[in-house]
Here is the input.
Amino acid sequence: MATARLLGASIKRREDPRFITGKGNYTDDLKLPGMTYAAFVRSPHAHAGIRKIDTARAIKHPGVVAVFTGTDMTGVNSLPCGWDLRKEKNIPGVVQDLAMVPHMPLTSDVARHVGDPVAVVIADSQDAALDAADLVTVDWDVKSSVTATALAAQAGAAQVHAGAPGNVAFKWELGGGDVDGAFKSADVVVRKRIVNQRLVANAMEPRACVARFEESTGDLTLWVTSQNPHVHRLLMCAFVLGIPEHKVRVISPDVGGGFGSKIFLYNEEVVCSWASRQLKRPVRWTSTRREAYMTDAHGRDHVTDAAMAMSKDGKILGLHVKTTANLGAYLSTFAPAVPTFLYGTLLNGVYKMGAIKCEVTGVFTNTTAVDAYRGAGRPEACYVLERMVDAAAAALKMDPADVRRTNFIPKFSGAYQTHVAVSYDSGDYAGAFDRLLQLFDYKKFRTEQAEARKKGRYLGVGFSTYIEACSIAPSKLVGALGAGAGLYESGKVRVHPTGGVTVYTGSHSHGQGHETTFAQLVADELQIPIDQVEVVHGDTGAIPFGMGTYGSRSASVGGTALHMSVHKIKEKGKKIAAHLLEASASDIEYVGGQFQVRGAPGKAVPWGAVALTAYVPHNYPEGIEPGLEETSFYDPSNFCFPFGAHACVVEVDGDTGHVKIVRYMAVDDVGNVINPMIVDGMVHGGIAQGAAQALWEGAVYDEESGQLVSGSLMDYALPKADMLPMYETARTETPTPVNPLGIKGAGETGTIASTPAVVNAVVDALSGFGVDHIEVMPLTPERVWKTVQAAKSKK
Amino acid sequence: MYPAQFEYHKAGTVREALDLLAKYKDEAKLLAGGHSLLPAMKLRLAQPKHVIDIGKVSELAGIKEEGGTLVIGAMTTHYAIESSALLKSKCPLLPEVAGHIGDPMVRNMGTLGGSLAHADPAADWPAAVIALGAEFVAEGPKGKRTIKVDDFFKGLLTTALTENEILTEIRVPACGANVKCAYAKFPHPASRFAVVGVAAVLTLDGGGKISKASIGITGAGTKATRAKGVEAAIAGKAADAASIQAAASSAADGVDVQADLQGSVEYKQHLLRVFAKRAMEAAAAKK
Here is the structure.
């Protein structure tokens, strides 16, 4: 039964045949007897009081079962925010307490952003629900609104919540070292305003839910597009609806992408769950793309004023960052964590720095709530830092590669204490950069660039040497920082009597390929064929309490939980085998798919025989329970810190400002790798997403009306294959000492690294015009063209 | 994405479609390839009570040549035009422009007549038909009439077609060997519609000069329009870079350029000049 090592093999994804042949089983595919359909009535205004909601015509529409408004939902609480930032909780860095503003599932007093739901129509058919929703009339008291991050806290701005004067949600700071001293002793100080624009997650499958209340048992089942079904159940039951968790089962079946946006508890799933209990019928809702733009949590949206203090020989002496983070109209589930502990803690980057100070103000605006989006805080930090390093290099007239090399933290394993609270696990930052420059042939490029410029062609290169914190993370630490949840992961391994294995993970796959990688991991450790391993996830009725998938945590945290359970299985198996072999358990080893006496492969019991014995324990050791099933909960001791070096080459069309990505090279170090092909896929997708932020994507609100004017796929530019080059990727492998698998995490690296690489490349291409910065992303052709025009007119 | 309730009518002939139009009047909408109307209906921006499907009316599809004129049925798909051997040899601008529209799925469904009658200000076809000096045949209760392209586009999503008329044919003159044409487009990064698009049809005199130029522009304004200033400036000039650049500088003259997320008025005016130059250069460079 022995097999070759599966760990490290590029096995094709086992889940793909069903996805690419249209046989996936998504929430919207579910058909239940007696199903009803929900349609939400949403605010067309960015900010408007609700004088009256008239539902009389809608309720009379054929097929309509019920119409509910916020005032009907008595006894239902606000959607909770799962991250606290208050001084009384001893959360570090809090300057002004987080304003815990209410977020009702259906707002009944004021609508605070376009798309804010105010009523729900439930009908026998989708058509009837939508037609009747058009018949609900709302008497709006339209108010002035504020959407722009930089304007939210200014005097005279519209007030989003009575409980947050001046629209300030919180103030927070972090840092270390003598920042004032660093700036006083600097030879050069570089200051830039850096805008990290708002993004829309755009998962391929829109959000959806089906809630079914069974009157006979009092059980509620909620099928929902969730990255973390247990978290959904906990938040909805304990905080909003007041239902005991054991009466609720949350199932997250096949889910088509999330990028963070499906972590959070949303209004619609709460309303459908509540309505199913009222109506005693299943209630289904599936978001349209337009609703997704208006209601899925958005990402990023920072305005930052950064200053970097440099010595004349290129050393980074200090960094001072003042950021305003737009949280939108309400506090989404983990919103306060993103621009604070997932942002400020990454500002040390891969560099030795004299001192850092980071000050963050969170603001409310009349926009869709902002929360974690692939990378979540870390891309914003990486963007500020990598942009500032390039700006500093330009100010010093140094090569950006040399400035990076001058400042890299030397290779280490164990701990590197930063100025911003976190301690890195292991790193070889110069090693990754060297590998990148090998791939690239940097010197040759600079020659080509100079030649091209003589011909009026504008080539540029941008580097990004990044670090990120992932495999989120130690419960004790995140609890001390304000998290309302633990951040361990669960893994259960059930061995069947005939030797097959079912693996139950608290991680959730919505594109990550867990059905392949976790099977690979377990099959490798048990040395059994991969088709003997089945992976179950996404059902609170089947799996142990788990925290789900986000923050590049599944392989490192969820995988380690499974590794621990496999270890327990092997230890128990040794005792059973020792009994059968009449040997001591301490003399048994597991090799090649059999339990054998150490060094004596002839004296052995195969894996399957031990499994069968565990369930048919006729000849069985004393004091050992029958069965072969183990559960583990793994809580890591630290985050893991993947890193790497990316380079992007662009050509800018001098006539139009259009940017073409010519080459993209990425060297990533994500620690040990289970499946290189899956990691490559994550890196590729991440680069596309990050490059898209640099050049194409951006959620735009009209400042006057507060309307989301980029609210469709016809307006909001997602990356397409023909806009991207073939990527050149490589890896270095620096295992983390944090977990026994040595895995760091790979899901977000590409997104974090690529945005600054692309922007730095465009700025480099325009350096001949005297351009050293472009303030606002995306770098649309017009922005690039105007930058060049302005630079030319200055000259 | 569910449209409001409507009644669907499938017309088998132009006559049937005209009768249905006469019956339902402004409660009816004609459905061709469905790539503009259906998205609008799904968003409930359009809520016609009656949809009259003329997409499969066989007399409205097909490409033929009639005495030096290419006659294209209004329901001919973009793909049929893109792949037409007749057009590739007699009017290569049309297949070239078709290749810029949407993606293969859109080109297999969308139609020339549907696009022109919809008159999206950022569509590709209007620039081409202006540059080619096309004529449109419309059929109504009182019979057929011909509309010249310069009289066809009236404004945002508005044409010379009346509510009881159907666009049936698009007629363009076959291009002689001395006629060179090209389309240059700056696509919207999301929709791939034209932020600006310029179609140039240049008639060369055989001595290196442009005897006549016909330039259609789309995307920048509320409707597609003819770049008369460019046409006048290049006529009689050499087909070289300097003359083309000089003529292209008047590409934005008289265009009601609209600002949007893709660009300010100033930027789009600039793009018009750049793409007028590129279209003429590309046309002049053709063999």
User: Anything to note?
Assistant: The longest strand of chain B covers residues 194-204. The CA atoms of residues 59 and 145 of chain B lie 17 Å apart.
